[in-house]
Amino acid sequence: MLNYLTTAFLLGGAWTFIVLLLLPVVFLAGVSGVYFLADTFWRIRSRRIL
Fold first, then answer.
1. How far is residue 47's CA from residue 40's CA, in Å, rounded to a whole number?
2. What is the pLDDT of residue 48?
3. pTM reported for the whole predicted model
4. Rounded-to-integer distance, Cα 13 and Cα 50, Å
5. For 1-50, what is each residue's pLDDT tens digit?
């Protein structure tokens, strides 16, 4: 029983650690993706105007 609890606790801690690590990465990827989309959109728009 103790072994099972320890395994569950370690797995939960590992998942929490992975999520905490991935959250900033996903956030930065989303921000850079939005910036890239806006940049390409503005380039296409300015190219059409010019």
1. 10
2. 75
3. 0.51
4. 55
5. 678 888 988 888 888 989 999 999 999 999 999 999 999 999 998 887 65
Three-class SS of 1-50 = CHHHHHHHHHHHHHHHHHHHHHHHHHHHHHHHHHHHHHHHHHHHHHHHHC
Both tokens of residue 28?
Answer: 């930065």
Task: Return the structure tokens found at 14.
Answer: 């590992």
